[in-house]
Amino acid sequence: MLIVMKPDATQSEIDRVLEIIGKLGYRGHAMPGETRTAIGITGNKGSVDPAHFENLPGVADAIRVTKPYKLISKDLRPEKSAIKVGNAYIGDGSLAMIAGPCAVESADQVFKVAEVVAASGARFFRGGAFKPRTSPYAFQGKGEDGLKILAEVRDRFGLNIVTEAMDEHGVDLVEKYGDCIQIGARNMQNFSLLKYAGQTRKPILLKRGLSATLDEFLLAAEYIMSEGNYDVILCERGIRTFADHARNTLDISIVPAIRRVSHLPVIIDPSHASGHNYMVEPLAKAGVAVGADGLIIEVHPCPEEALCDGAQALTPDQYRSLSDMIKVLQSALNASESDSTTFNTKELTA
Ligand code: PEP
Ligand code: MN
Fold first, then answer.
1. CA proximity to 294, closest of 317, 258, 270, 325
2. d(CA 56, CA 299)
3. Fewer CB within 10 Å: N-end or C-end of the chain?
4. Count of domains for the chain
5. Ligand 1 centroid to residue 184 C-alpha, Å
6. Closest CA to 26 of 54, 6, 3, 60
7. Which pLDDT tens digit goes with each residue over 80-96?
């Protein structure tokens, strides 16, 4: 059930609807939009009778939801959501650049990259302190010491920190030191972790699982939102297919597919999608061209010495040149969009 409030509905009318939802034993999720507030209902087993709401003051409509998801849906919020991460936004119409090493290895390594990332104008820094590695013998990350280094990056360079949590303890620590909690591809369907992350107030960067369908991806976001955290950013990072020329297959079609049904921002990770340094730039350009809200890119001061994912890391010089190129591409796309009258690009960008 979705309750659409009238454009001039007052806060007390919204509160009254939420109160009734609570009394019925369900949970209400008020989602303010540009023109009206809509309220999603979760926690109901069967359908909810619209009669409870139809005649309440301020209510424009009570609509039955037939789709498997509610809160991620454009039915609830037709406009795209801009998510605040630290002191900057993802999904506000600008292109968010999130860059940094795969793993935090040392303060020196991280600061070298942060300097370049900040100088390029990016607002977000990535780096893992908890690493989900295929082998238990591979470098697992520096844990809390790594998070402390990332917190120092924020203080020194003014970058907002995006970093992965692999379990509940990690969520607590990232909440303390970081600005955005990344949930990695391997944990996309770790439902207890998703619920736990939904109870924090930090934004979540949710990466698509290696074999997740669109609905599975969106329902994973729905898990987080159903707990009351609406600040979710989706990330396409490549899926597993028969193709073996790249580490994964970048599925850029998921961007317009998400746009069609969801208000959540979506970014592209060309580093994990490709696994190869030489593919990162072309895939990053494809991500921008398809209308992604941002890019997350791995950079290492000396990729051949990286403890993790060196083959896909850009050098600082390569990152600088990629960032310049992306700015040119983005402004060309913005210009062509405002000129375009013949071709419906709205669905890609709205
Ligand atoms: C990462 O971003 O460091 C990472 C491990 O990504 P993914 O979960 O997409 O593999
Ligand atoms: Mn990596």
1. 270
2. 55
3. C
4. 2
5. 5
6. 3
7. 999 999 999 999 999 99
Tell me: do 26 and 136 sit in the same domain: no
Q: Are residues 8 and 96 in the same domain?
A: no
H or E, element range at 153 = helix 144-157
Residue 153 located in a structural domain: yes
Q: Domain residues for 94? A: 83-335
Which stretch of DSSP H or E encloses residue 337?
Answer: helix 316-339
Atom of ligand 1 minimally distant from the CA of 269: 9
Of 331, 337, 302, residue with least CA distance to 316 = 302
Q: Is residue 233 part of a domain?
A: yes
Residues 194 and 313 in one domain: yes
74 within some domain: no
pTM of this structure: 0.95
Q: Is the pLDDT of residue 97 over 50?
A: yes
Decide if pLDDT at 350 tops 50. no
- pLDDT, tens digit, 9 for 90 and up, residues 227-261: 999 999 999 999 999 999 999 999 999 999 999 99
**Measured between alpha carbons, how far apart are the two ends of the chain, in Å?**
25
Residues 37 and 157 in one domain: no
State in Å: Cα 123 to ligand 1 middle: 20
Q: Are 70 and 42 in contact (CB under 8 A)?
A: yes
How large a percentage of the chain has pLDDT more than 70? 97
* CATH label of the domain that carries residue 33: 3.30.70.1140
Give the tokens for residue 167: 């379990």
* Protein residues with CB under 6 Å of any ligand 1 atom: 102, 128, 132, 184-186, 207, 237, 272
Cβ contacts of 294 within 8 Å, gap of 6 or more: 90, 95, 96, 97, 98, 124, 233, 265, 267, 268
Residue 244, Cβ density class (10 Å: 0-12 exposed, 13-18 middle, ≥19 buried)? exposed
Domain annotation covers residue 231:
yes
- Whichever domain contains 319, its CATH number is 3.20.20.70
